[in-house]
Design a protein that fits this description.
homodimer, alpha/beta, 4-stranded parallel sheet, elongated, DNA-binding
Chain lengths: 335, 335
DNA sequence: ATATTATTTTTACGCGCGCAAAATTTTAAT
DNA sequence: ATTAAAATTTTGCGCGCGTAAAAATAATAT
C-alpha cells in the first residue's frame, strides 16, 4: 500500500481511507487513486485490514441446516442481500446439531463480524451461548424467535399462517387434524402447534393432534413411515391432515400413494393433505401440495436491513423489534 | 500472546510455534502451555496469524448451486471432512452463475487458502480464470471434470452409471429414450448424453433423444412443463424415459401424475421413468424414483484426501489423477 | 567427561495496515 | 481580502503475530 500510495502521489493513510469508504476522500483524490488503480491493480491485504479494525465488513449468517431446502433458500437470499450492501457474508450451517451452532458462533467471534444473522434451533439452542454472543456483537434472529435474545427478530407469523390454513380447510371440508413430531427439531413446530389449537377452538372444533416419534432431520422419512402407519391403520379421525411442515407432508403423500389412497379435494379423493412453508418441491409432489408460502424474500431483506440499521446507530435499541410477515395460502391439488 | 507467553514462562515465538503445530515443541513445554491455557483462555488472533503465514489453514469449497440438494449434500460432506482434518473450510455457492464462480475464486484469493475444492460448471466455466487460479493455489476438481484444469479430479463414472441403468431398463422392458435439456446447465449432462448413446448402441438399440428448451436451475419446472407436453402429445416413442437427472425426473413424474398416467414397472402401468443422482427426495416421489446413487461420501472424502496429499508434497504431481466411483442402481417403483 | 550434533528456544525484525492527533488545505462568512 | 470553521490529508505509532538467524539446551557418540 505504501508503494501504491507513493505511485499515486498520495499518502498511505489517505489510500487506506479510500478503501474503507471511497466517499470519505475528496473527489479529486478519489479520481487520482482510481486512475492509479487501473495501472497497478493493487488490492489491500484482507488480514492486515481486519487485524486493526474495530469492526470488519464481515457478516455471519448461521442456519440450522443447509441440507434443508428451506434454509438453503433463505440463507441464499440473506447472503445475496449482504453482498448487495457491500458486506462479506459468511454462511455457516449447523448441520442439524446444536453443538455445531455453538461452534459456529465461536468461530465467528474470531472473525470480528460487524453483525450476525442467526436462525437458531430455538428451544434446543444453547441460550446462554447465544446471549453471550449477543452481548459482544450485533445479533438479529430470523425464522425462529427466542425470548430476550438478539436485538431484533424477523420471521413468519405462524398464528396468522396456520389460522389461514385451518380456516380454509374447515371451510372447504372436514376440519383438519395436526400431524407433527413428538419432539420436533423444527424451530417453529411449537408455535404452529399452538396456532393450530387456538385456531381450531376459534372455529368451534376440537383439536386433534397426532404426534409421531423420530428425531433428526429426516422429516420426509418420518412422515412416510409414521404417517403411513397411521394411514394404513385408519387412525386419523378426519380425512384432512395438516402437517407441521412440507417435508413431513411430502412423506405423508408418499405413504398415501403407496397405500393407493387418492389425495386431493376432489369428490373421488380419500384424504386431504396440507403442509407449511412452500418447500421448493411442493409444486411437484403428487398431487401438488397445498401449503403456506413464507415470504422468504421479505424475511431475508428485513433481517438484513434491521441488522444494518443497528450497525449505523451503534447504540443498542431500547425496544426489541419483532417483525413477522404473513404467510400466503397456496392452493394446489392436495387439499 | 506476549502476555500469555510470559505468564506461561515461555517465550512468545515458542507459543507461536505451539499454535501452528502443538507437536513441534518439546513435550514438557507443551504441557506447560496447555496448563497455562486452562487458566487464561487465550486464543491467537486469526487475522494476525494469517497475515504473515505463507499458507493458511483455510480450504475453499466452491459448488455451483447450494440450492440444489445434490450440491448441498456433497458440499456438506466436504466441509465436514475438512473440519475433521483440522482445516477451516469456507463453503461458497456460485448461485447458478458462472460470473459468481469467478467472483468466488477471486475472493478466495484474498484468503490465501491452503487449497481449494471446486465443483465447476464445466464447459460453461471461465476456464482461463480457473486455470490461473490453479497456477497459484492447489486446486482439486470434483463432480465435473475439465480438461487440464486442477491437480486432480474426483467424481462419478457416468459411462458406467448410465450403462448400468440402460442395461437394466433394456433387460426389464422397452429400451429407454433420453430426456434432457437442450443447453444443459448441469455439469455432467453431456457426459451422460454420450454415455446413453454409447450404451444404447452396445445394446443394439437406436438412441432416442428428447431435448427440451429452458435454462436456469429450475429443473423440476422444466421437466414438468416440457416433459408434460411431450407426454400429453404422446411424443415419446417408447414407454421408458431416462432423465438426465433426478430433478428433471421429479418434474416428469409430476406431469405424469397430472395427466393420470400410471408410472411404474407393473403390468398396469403406462410409462417408466428413471433418473440419476439419487436426489434426497427421490425416495419420496410418487412412485419412488428408480435412479443411480452417486457415492457422495466417497467422492467428498477422496477429493479432500487428494487435496491434502498434495498439500504435504507441495511439488505438483506429474500425473493428474482422475478418480471416478461407480454409481449404484437404486431400483424403486418408477422403473 | 568431553566433543559433536540435533533439537529447541530466544532474539530481532518486519509484515500491511488502522487510527488518533497534528498539520494542512479548502470552504464559508464577514 | 481576511479570518474562522470545516473538511481533508499527513505524521507517528502500534497492532498481534510469523519467521530467519542466533543462542541455548538436550541427546548422542567417543
Amino acid at each position: 500500500m505504501e508503494e501504491f500510495a507513493s505511485l499515486s502521489g498520495i499518502s498511505r493513510p489517505t489510500v487506506s481511507k479510500y478503501f474503507n469508504d471511497p466517499d470519505s476522500v475528496r473527489a479529486s483524490t478519489r479520481a487520482k487513486i482510481e486512475a492509479s488503480l487501473e495501472k497497478h491493480d493493487y488490492q489491500p491485504n484482507v488480514f492486515a485490514m481486519n487485524q486493526n479494525r474495530r469492526t470488519t465488513k464481515n457478516i455471519g449468517v448461521v442456519v440450522p441446516n443447509l441440507a434443508d431446502p428451506f434454509f438453503s433458500e433463505i440463507g441464499r437470499r440473506v447472503e445475496l442481500a449482504c453482498i448487495e450492501a457491500g458486506y462479506s457474508p459468511i454462511l455457516l450451517s449447523s448441520h442439524g446439531s446444536v453443538a455445531m451452532e455453538r461452534d459456529n458462533l465461536a468461530s465467528l467471534r474470531a472473525l470480528k463480524p460487524a453483525g450476525v444473522l442467526l436462525a437458531p434451533f430455538g428451544r434446543m439452542s444453547d441460550k446462554d451461548a447465544i446471549q453471550a454472543f449477543d452481548d459482544d456483537f450485533p445479533l438479529v434472529l430470523f425464522d425462529a424467535n427466542m425470548e430476550d435474545v438478539g436485538q431484533a427478530f424477523v420471521g413468519t407469523d405462524n398464528a396468522q399462517s396456520v389460522d389461514l390454513m385451518v380456516e380454509y380447510l374447515c371451510r372447504s371440508g372436514e376440519a383438519p387434524c395436526f400431524f407433527e413430531m413428538k419432539s420436533p427439531t423444527n424451530p417453529n413446530a411449537n408455535k404452529r402447534h399452538q396456532a393450530y389449537v387456538d385456531s381450531m377452538e376459534r372455529h368451534g372444533e376440537a383439536p386433534r393432534i397426532f404426534q409421531v416419534s423420530g428425531d433428526g432431520w429426516n422429516f420426509e422419512e418420518i412422515g412416510n413411515t409414521e404417517g403411513g402407519q397411521l394411514l394404513s391403520s385408519d387412525a386419523f379421525t378426519t380425512n384432512t391432515i395438516l402437517c407441521s411442515n412440507d417435508r413431513l407432508a411430502i412423506g405423508v403423500l408418499s405413504a398415501a400413494y403407496g397405500l393407493g389412497l387418492r389425495v386431493g379435494h376432489g369428490a373421488d379423493c380419500d384424504i386431504r393433505v396440507a403442509g407449511h412453508d412452500d418447500h421448493p418441491f411442493a409444486r411437484f409432489t403428487c398431487p401438488p401440495l397445498t401449503t403456506i408460502a413464507q415470504d422468504y424474500e421479505a424475511i431475508a431483506n428485513r433481517a438484513v436491513s434491521d441488522l444494518f440499521a443497528m450497525l449505523e446507530t451503534d447504540s443498542p435499541h431500547s425496544t426489541r423489534p419483532e417483525t413477522t410477515f404473513d404467510g400466503r395460502l397456496i392452493m394446489r391439488d392436495s387439499a
